Amino acid sequence: MISFTRIYLALICIITFFSFYIYLSKRINESLISKEKKSDKRELVLDLIQNPNEFVLKYVDLPFDFGYGSNSIPLVISALISNGDFLELGIGSFSTPLLHKMSIDYYRKLISIDTNSDWVDKFKLYNDTRDHRVYLVENFENLEDKIGSKNKKWGLVLVDHIEANKRPTHAKYYAEKSEIVIVHDAEKSSEIYYQYEANSLRSSFKQACKFSIYQNKEKTSYISTLILSNYIDLTILESIFEKVKTEFGHVACNLSF
Ligand SMILES: *[C@@H]1O[C@H](CO)[C@@H](O)[C@H](O)[C@H]1NC(C)=O
């Protein structure tokens, strides 16, 4: 009887020991993998700081478009310094293919949303790919329900849709839900439509950086893209943008409007 109890206890000891061993080795493995991921990211960002044009020109075609494509460079750079999936509010002939390619290369899911069925139809084929979904919605209210992404934390959200005066509200909504939020058309001359300043969009974020591109040689008009974050130190953007902007660009980080 006694020896039976001993065997029983010994068995329990052995099982406990092995369970603990398996648990511990799993945790060590997990932490090694996440460390590896982090150092991969650090290497990528270092590479980006050194050779930003290598990355930009992989996703943005020359000659650069200084109109609808004026957010392309900030998109590429912001995608690379952030972690997590992409959400695009408003489909664009420059931003959508660009983010699509980056989503493939970096295994980051992409959701593109628009209220215009013609636009959605043009890009519908993306819906049949691995990581990209395209949605037609009536409006951008209760979006999380419509696309089934409640409580999701995004890597990058681009707010570039047609509901001009609602852009500030939508951008603010993602202030804590995305590592980076980008709004397009943030130049002074368009404030009347988008009202980013009137709605003090900047105050919802710790960091902001503005990338502007002149639309003509005379430098009489420009389009700005505003990059906002509560998670990432955007001061690194300044030196990166300075290297890629060409004479058509202008960079202002650490903004406080
Ligand atoms: C894309 O696929 C999703 C399901 O994965 C579907 O809900 C959505 O309606 C599709 N979009 C289009 C434009 O067909």
UniProtKB/TrEMBL annotation:
It comes from the Eukaryota. The keyword Transmembrane helix applies. The keyword Membrane applies. The chain crosses the membrane at residues 6-24. Keywords: Membrane, Transmembrane, Transmembrane helix. This is Class I SAM-dependent methyltransferase. It comes from Brachionus calyciflorus.
